[in-house]
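[Q] Does anyone have a clean structure-token version of this?
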Amino acid sequence: MANVSDLVAPLQLMCRMVGPAQAQLALVEAMKKFMIDTGIFNDHAQMEYQAGVPEYIIDIPMSRIIVSVVNVSVNGVPTTQWARDGIYNNIRLFEEYDDRSCIDVEYTWAINGVDDCEIPDEFLSRFQMPILDGARMYLHRMYGSQMIDPTVAMLAQREFENAIADTKARRIMNFSNSRPVLRSGKMRRRSRASARRFL
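[A] Here you go.
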């Protein structure tokens, strides 16, 4: 996997006045929002069932937070008889199973932003531009920044939120199509490429 710092240099090429620490902070905020809102990054955690023990900790890497639990299965069979404790990342099973059965938990996740944490490789390829848009949105409205510009922040926010909505819609439709975008006849149409010239 890549690291947050891998995107600092591309962001500094677009925002030349920003320092590495400030750039990394903005990137982390953009990545967290993208991952939480789209829910496209998922993984599995497995644990062994123990007779008489209803609650189990979902063991995840320290650099992650759980956004949602998508599915729970026992020995490959999905079950709906469970609940999640979102505070402690626990799940509780309401049925009993054979001892040492395999519990599989599918979850969506986001980075927690601690230090230079690992990020999905997709942020260096297919999602790089949306993340840079999101980081610029934060930079141009960040308190204490020398780059505060409400107009540029608004343009970057529009591109960022459009990418989030499109990615989320494609996930819902199994990535087979993009969401339909409605445009007002009174609005001046501008491509994403031309819009970014103002950023």
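[Q] Thanks! Anything notable?
[A] The CA atoms of residues 51 and 99 lie 5 Å apart.
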